[in-house]
Amino acid sequence: MASKHPKPTAIKRAEGNRGKRPLPANEPQPQPGEPAMTPGLSAAAQKHWRRLCPLLLDMGVLTVADGDALGQLCEMLAINTDRLGEVRERRGNVNRRFAQFIALQGPLKRAMDGFGLDPSSRSRIAVAVKAKKEDEELSKPELRIAHGTTA
pTM of the full predicted structure? Predict the structure, then answer.
């Protein structure tokens, strides 16, 4: 069965281009770094943004082009947290709030997978680690490839 997402070019090169098909020559490579915060994020989503950016930068999977995807993830996390709180406190229509919480789990999981925020998705993301000098310890990871929304 074919994968939903194409295999990143960096992985194809690392595997020796087993399919022998031509690889894209001018594939965009966004710079690693923290993107500008998405305008219009709720206060709760901004908290998630400030929590996740340092984590994703340390993991080496965040680029300056990932602002919108990270913003969507943060908003989903904020809504998810709010719905769970409403269910726990039995505010409003609990059955409806719980249904909304459950309905958000699939999209939230896919968004988190794109950034490697669970163990199984991290196994599908490769980052290169470069040493500054041969005798120094390895530095922080440098972004090489990522699947999903952070290509």
Answer: 0.69
